[in-house]
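Subject: for your reference before the review

Hello V.,

The reviewers asked for a structural picture of the protein, and I figured it would be easier to keep everything in one thread rather than splitting it across files. Below is the amino acid sequence we used in the manuscript, unchanged from the supplementary table.
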Amino acid sequence: MGYYDYYSYSNPSYYDYYDYGYTAADSSFFTALWAVLGAFLGVVLIVALVIAILQIVGMWKVFTKAGEKGWKCIIPIYNLVILFRISGLSPWIIFGYLAGIIPFIGWIVCLGITIYQCNSLAKSFGKDVGYTIGLLFLPTIFYMILGLGKAEYVGKGATSTASTYQGDGVVNISEKPQDEPPTNNDEDNSNL
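And here is what came back from the structure prediction:
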């Protein structure tokens, strides 16, 4: 038995002894799995892009209503500085977000800063606590409402102009009652 006889095609090879368990069915399963995963990630990417575009549009309009240039909302970190300024807060508070690298305590600090900023922004547009909660949990929608709605920028840290229900009518809190002129005619004629 010679060298060529031993290593000829009639003898089994190394790969014939070791089967790695991959079959054509396994290959098609993994191909289908990757296709489904890719389609899912594609849909998630499209939804994320739509949300990002709506957020930019809403913030652009909010910045414009507050007297700032709209393009400032596109620049990362600078947009937060301007947003703090619009909210009536010191832009230096942004450094508080650096505490986020501290586990647990830093996250609480960042959450507190975010809640404070959302509340101040809502007050700057004359809105109440409901808008603060909305800006916190659904920022894209509430930036769109503030930017494209009838809300007007009333200033930094302004008080709410929300209406309250009293009796059978609605009274606006921001309106001050005007002094009524005296009804006694003798007092009016005394100045003549």
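For the response letter, the relevant points are probably these. The chain has one domain: 25-162. Residues 25-162 form one domain.

Happy to draft the paragraph if you're swamped.

O.
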